[in-house]
Amino acid sequence: MMSQFTSISPNQRLVLPYTRVKREVLLPNNLIGTVLVRVGQQVNPNTVIASGNRTTQHHLVNCAAELGLRRTAKLTDVLMVKLGDVVKQGEVLAGQQLQRGKRSFAPVDGQVVAIEDGTLIIRQIIDRVDLLAGMRGVVTDVRPGRGIEIEGSGALLQGVWGNNRRAVGSLRLEPERGIEMPPNEWRGTIMVTPHPVTAVTLVRMEQLRLAGLIAPSMDSTLLEVALQLEQAILLTEGFGQMSMHNVLQSRLAHFEKRYATVQAVSPRSVVTRHPEVLIAVGATDEEVPLSEPLASPEVSVGVAVRVIREPYRGQIGKIIEVGRHSSALSNGLSVPAAVVKFSNGRIEPIPMTNLEVFT
User: Fold this and answer.
1) What is the DSSP letter of 308?
2) Considering the entire predicted model, what is its pTM?
3) How many CB atoms lie within 10 A of CB 24?
4) Helix (H), strand (E) at residue 101
């Protein structure tokens, strides 16, 4: 009977004051990128590790026709640029002379990505993106044109939902009486609020030009709006009207004004990665292992857990008994359960599938 109960394991979410992690930091797929660091190099959260140019469309410039060349092969003799060059709008691409006569000009800012049959293809450059390391550590691998892998240390807090954005900035707690300081002092910061996200929150977020937001919950009607925002949003509890648990709130408050990275990935059934906050903290003399979620987290007496479904969703407690109880679901199925004692003293048997290990 014991093996039946222990064969079903809860999920795992990490909340650690200091740990080592290994993370990929990559440019978005639609960017032309250059990696600026090397393997073995030490980086800080604000180190620019790669840069790229965001692109939208390609422009064809028939230089041979514009110059009146009968043979397209002759274009090579009058080209002013070469493959891979970055050009400015109005820059001379080809011509007998740079300052006068028949000339062909770049229609937009961009990069020459092809030269064929008398025609240049220019990939338009909209804006430049600098990718920050977001954590303190050492470069362990380089992904050419994309980014790097870093092994480093810091405080780690994993959430339950994100809007697929990334933010790097200083953690700031939302004041109890609201934001009174000049708005420009909030620009580029990551605000932590203990309250559910509302439509007003999202508007205020853009007005203050925050880099990101860490909040407990959000009404599902705001989902589409949140996914369209440029700023990162990470939820620690989920959708609905839940407040942030005091354990998480106190952990984040402890690290106010520290540099942090919010990787607000949106969990999918095929992806085990959680949205997370990695906070830069000073190194310790203690050796700590790399922290990664376990495939089958240990379930034993004394382990901290969080309930992920109603009626106790969002509550945190400790397991006081495991292996002898089952719990009936709404569909009538009886499943393995652990007895959990919550912070308010209440004791309840909770299905294993409704728990996550809260390290």
Assistant:
1) -
2) 0.68
3) 12
4) none
For the chain, where are the alpha helices, taking DSSP H only? Answer: 2-6, 63-67, 75-78, 199-207, 223-228, 246-254
Q: Which is it for strands 92-95 and 103-105: parallel, antiparallel or unpaired?
A: antiparallel
CA dist., res. 277 & res. 19, Å (int): 12
Name every residue whose Cβ is closer than 8 Å to that of residue 224 and which is 6 or more positions away in sequence.
none
Contact criterion met (CB below 8 Å) for 123 and 141: no
Q: Per-residue pLDDT tens for 157-190?
A: 888 899 999 999 999 998 877 655 556 788 899 9
Nearest to 231 by CA among 207, 246, 249, 213: 213
The DSSP secondary structure of 9-37, one letter per residue, reads --EEE-EEEEEEEEEEEE--TTEEEEE--
Structure token digits, residue 221: 């009607």
The CA–CA distances, whole Å, from 199 to 73, 221, 225 equal 60, 10, 9
Residues forming beta bridges with residue 335, ordered by sequence position:
327
Domains delineated in the chain: 12-47+152-279 (3.50.30), 53-128 (2.40.50), 298-358 (2.30.30.30)
Residue 133: phi and psi, rounded to 5, are -60, -45
Distance, in Å, from the CA atom of 311 to the CA atom of 100, rounded to the nearest integer, reads: 78
> β-strand 119-132 against 48-62: which pairing, if any?
antiparallel
Q: How far apart are CA 200 and CA 335, in angstroms?
A: 42
CA gap 177, 10 in Å, rounded: 39
Q: Given this model, what pLDDT does residue 355 score?
A: 81
